[in-house]
């Protein structure tokens, strides 16, 4: 086993605060690779301290050991003594820290490698504790394969049983906010519609940039559906968007929501947290599409809107496949290379399987995938539609 004979406890009397490694023998141990200079580590640290304290209070057989990648002893001391309640490998013990990084193939931080007491401690059963802690909190404990499978099974069941009512209502509220305020729209009135859950906030710059586009596409989809219904009386397809706010206060929510033509969950509603967890929303803006039966159709609504605008509706796999084929067909007539105003290098046409992949468009700042124009020299990448709008050859 590569751990040293003793570890530091977080005490200002550092030298005295030591613990024997043998004290960890019967415990589930999380080797925590982290550093103070990296913001994602600091964010994760708060979350980890929180679940550590909960687990300790409930008497769980758990310990964390900090393996520092701090640059110097001052940075280490500051980070460790001010924010960690668990033991650490002594900062000066470079050998052990290096050996642990090598042994567990640590490629990025933060990283939490979980060792089970009945492992021989030379093999970790689990290497992605960070993701688990973020996703499940204390429920992830004891971090075993069985527990993980159980949680995934629960997730699957929750998704299979999901419908608009259990997603959007609670014991105290069965309506959404509409316009003009304080109009209330029953959640039940959305049943049978395609519904987009729009996770967003006014403080988020990409959200503010995305919203005019989403509003215009929302109106276009509504228009297409209205025309369809005009032509064909038995069409009752409909589309709605529900704003799921992560604004910091009621006033920002009110002002932001007043710019939107659709519905919203009330500010600070308890369902919001659950929705973020349920759909594993990692960043905003994000648009989750629910089908007429309330099941998830796509969690990539934002990307689909960027790629296909109103044509993306109803966002189903079949629809997207058709659109992808169309896009491939259209790409055949695109020039292999172009110049884009504002960029001095030549841009080359690339696709998913051919030098491309998901990207952020340097022209409109939105996501893209499938076809793109890419500068091989500096990585400048734009949507074909954005480059064709201003193409100069
Ligand atoms: Zn673009
Ligand atoms: Zn370039």
Automatic annotation (TrEMBL):
InterPro entries: C1-like_sf, DC1, Nucleoredoxin-like, Thioredoxin-like_fold, Thioredoxin-like_sf, Thioredoxin_domain
Keyword NAD: yes
Reaction equation(s) it catalyzes: [protein]-dithiol + NAD(+) = [protein]-disulfide + NADH + H(+); [protein]-dithiol + NADP(+) = [protein]-disulfide + NADPH + H(+)
Top EC class of this enzyme: oxidoreductase
Superkingdom as given in the UniProt entry: Eukaryota
GO molecular function: protein-disulfide reductase [NAD(P)H] activity
All residue ranges annotated as the Thioredoxin domain in the record: 1-153, 175-325
Enzyme Commission number(s) of this protein: 1.8.1.8
KW Oxidoreductase (keyword) present: yes
Name of this chain's protein: protein-disulfide reductase
